[in-house]
Specification:
Elements (H helix, E strand, L loop, with lengths): L3 H12 L5 E3 L3 H10 L1 E2 L3 E5 L5 E3 L2 H5 L4 E4 L6 H8 L8 E4 L12 H8 L5 E5 L4 H5 L4 E6 L3 H11 L4 E6 L2 H23 L4 H22 L9 H12 L4 H10 L4 H6 L5
Parallel strand pairs: 1-4, 5-6, 6-7, 8-9
Antiparallel strand pairs: 2-3, 7-8
Length: 270
């Protein structure tokens, strides 16, 4: 995906000395990234590594790949996986870097990937990760989760660096639920901050929001410990308080009286 997160991960992979291929649907964006060697739409002023290939051709992006990192909006995840699946062999590991649930059936991204690519190793990447900070090489810790611990450990070894530390987890469900549901709490804290309800109110929303997310996750079969870690409280706190949080910014806009459509129209981000 050629958005901010997909681009940031591509920059990180280039920093590791790898030769990533970045796919973007929009041919105009692809042309700009090729000519300017930066993603001026979603991640401006950050140079793309020389080893990075940018393409709008999925066959080119995925041909011969051993790892496919999928970082597209959750509402587009299934459609992208549908067209990508023919280019993914059974041995290609699929790593979902998308947070959210499928709008139509409320499936998690790992469930969508498994349905489109049965038999492929599946993992998810989540945690408190602002794309710009990852692209800048600032210290970041995140979680890579897979039902197969060997897959998670292999990805940890392959993708970690001194500034990008990965922890493994087998609780895929909990990691994905934490990454999806924190967005609602972040919007609520944005609304609270926009209405100037105070820092006490913000702390209450975050704390009680974490309690609700944990209860729901456990009811679905997740481990409560997951929500006390990076994919739970870590991601929640960053999204509810960070200056780069899109969901917190959405809440602020709603508090100022803008409609949801107006607030979304002010940014290319989803």
């Amino acid at each position: 995906g050629g958005g901010s997160w997909g681009t940031a991960l591509a920059v990180h992979l280039g920093r590791l000395g790898l030769a990533p291929r970045l796919w973007a649907r929009d041919t105009t964006l692809v042309g700009l990234m090729r000519s300017k060697r930066e993603n001026s739409w979603y991640l401006p002023d950050i140079p793309l590594p020389e080893t990075l290939t940018v393409t709008s051709d999925l066959a080119e992006a995925l041909g011969g790949a051993g790892l496919a990192i999928v970082a597209v909006p959750s509402h587009a995840f299934d459609a992208v996986m549908e067209v990508a699946a023919p280019h993914l062999g059974g041995g290609v590991t699929i790593l979902s870097a998308t947070k959210g649930l499928e709008p139509e059936r409320s499936r998690r991204m790992s469930e969508v990937a498994s349905a489109r690519c049965p038999g492929s190793p599946i993992a998810v990447l989540s945690g408190p990760t602002f794309a710009r900070e990852v692209a800048l090489g600032l210290p970041t810790a995140a979680v890579v989760a897979s039902a197969d611990p060997d897959v998670a450990k292999a990805l940890q070894h392959r993708l970690s660096s001194p500034e990008f530390r990965l922890y493994t987890n087998r609780d895929v469900l909990g990691v994905e639920i934490g990454g999806a549901l924190k967005n609602a709490i972040a919007i609520a804290t944005g609304i609270s901050d926009g209405l100037r309800l105070g820092e006490n109110a913000r702390a209450a929303l975050i704390t009680r929001g974490l309690a609700e997310i944990t209860r729901l996750g456990v009811a679905l079969g997740a481990s409560p410990a997951t929500f006390a870690g990076l994919a739970g409280i870590g991601d929640l706190v960053l999204t509810c308080t960070g200056s780069l949080s899109r969901n917190h910014a959405l809440g602020l806009a709603l508090a100022r009286g803008k409609t949801f459509e107006q607030a979304r129209g002010e940014t290319r981000m989803v």
